[in-house]
Amino acid sequence: MGARDLSIINTAPPNRQPITTELKTFDVGFIRDAIYLEVYRAGQVFFVHNRVRDIYEVAALLKKQCPDVEVGVAHGQMGGEELENHMLKFVNKEYDVLVCTNIVESGLDIPNANTIIINNAHWFGLSDVHQLRGRVGRSNKKAYCYLITPPLHSLPDDARKRLQTIEQFAELGSGFQISMRDLDIRGAGNLLGGEQSGFIAEIGYDTYHKILNEAIRELKHTEYKELFAEQIEEKLEYVQDVQIDSDLEMLIPDEYINNINERMSIYTRLDNVENEEQLKSFRNELSDRFGKIPRQVEELLNGIRLRWLAKDLGFERIIFKGNKLRCYFVENIKSVFYESRYFESLMQYIAAKKSPATLKQTYKPFIYMRSEDGEPYSWTTGDSASNVNVMNMAFGEDAWSLVTYETAIADEIFNENICFVWMEGSDICEDEFIDFLEQ
């Protein structure tokens, strides 16, 4: 599961101009002037009124205000032949003004019509208004779109936001921005449960998309892990993203790329680099466009390599400060990562002392063990019993057993092959437990 890639068409056809979009209250004088302005430059006008029951009254009002202008009517309740006849008259310039419903919002290309007046525009959705506005401006002439509404302060918040959005985004190729704003206004719907409705309005599309992917991935690794076991094992999808915290400067300096939009674009592209070959190509491009690669950017590129390695090893977080590297395994204790052959092999590798690395627990419950040199170290994830089973697989059958802190104190057990467990809710505080282990 996941969102598909999308393409954005930002380039308008040649010689097209942005459509001037204005919000207006109903004013017969203004409407008359707008119609005459278009007619006097040999153009035609759409007047959209989306109520069939009084559409002829509106047409009569316009005819009264503009007696020398030919006015036609078109709506969806007409018969097919009658509707076609009226539309052909408008196309053939027999009508100067076409009073119509939103039946004209798509499929029409009439270059000579370059003014559209939308009555009660607050009744329409953003996509409807955007489509209706697209009926004009289809030639090299300047086009106008007038949205007739009650005063903005009397409208509901969502309607006001829709109208302000369509007025703001009037440039060519702004359809994607309008759709994103519509997503913010209406919410993303009910993709993963009722609580998701409208959530995107608070955090934005990109963050929402990231959270959605994480939720889907979590379901794959927990509730539906048996169903996706083969896919997970094949792709090793144990970690979706890695957080790196370091005292190194890993960034693109302002003096290297001055334009903030360009820097953000570079960061976004870098985040999507997937392998060493692409990274080298990306580095060469930076060097070619902006000059010698500064030290901070080299560290950033190394950080990308570190993130790839961390994903392969099952680390969700890495802290590299003061020449010390701390890596944190998958936080979700139910993740199939801890049941994988890879994790078992990793434990066996550490148990065989082929690495100077040590394991230390960072959250409850705690499982502390002593190494051969007497220094305490710890390892934890999942419930205590399953961890001991994994340790037995790594160190040999029945090499480790499980006791509580209280039992260890009462029986004076200090065997190297004992897992001392401190459970949340114990009367003994965590610091006292650690002091006991270090004795």
Would you give an account of this structure?
This protein is of the alpha/beta class. It has four domains: 19-186, P-loop containing nucleotide triphosphate hydrolases (Rossmann fold, 3-Layer(aba) Sandwich); 187-237, no CATH class; 238-327, Transcription-repair-coupling factor, D7 domain (Aspartate Aminotransferase, domain 1), CATH 3.90.1150; 340-438, no CATH class. Helix content is 41%, strand content 15%. It has helices spanning 28-40, 55-65, 80-91, 126-133, 157-168, 175-186, 200-203, 205-221, 229-235, 260-271, 276-290, 295-313, 341-351, 384-395, 405-411, 430-438, and strands at residues 19-24, 44-48, 71-74, 97-100, 113-119, 143-148, 243-246, 315-321, 324-329, 366-370, 376-378, 401-404, 418-422. A hairpin with a 2-residue loop joins strand 8 and strand 9 (324-329). The two termini are 51 Å apart.
Topology:
Layout: E1 19-24, H1 28-40, E2 44-48, H2 55-65, E3 71-74, H3 80-91, E4 97-100, E5 113-119, H4 126-133, E6 143-148, H5 157-168, H6 175-186, H7 200-203, H8 205-221, H9 229-235, E7 243-246, H10 260-271, H11 276-290, H12 295-313, E8 315-321, E9 324-329, H13 341-351, E10 366-370, E11 376-378, H14 384-395, E12 401-404, H15 405-411, E13 418-422, H16 430-438
Parallel strand pairs: 1-6, 2-4, 2-5, 3-4, 5-6, 7-8, 12-13
Antiparallel strand pairs: 8-9, 10-11, 10-13
Helix pairs in contact: 5-6, 13-14
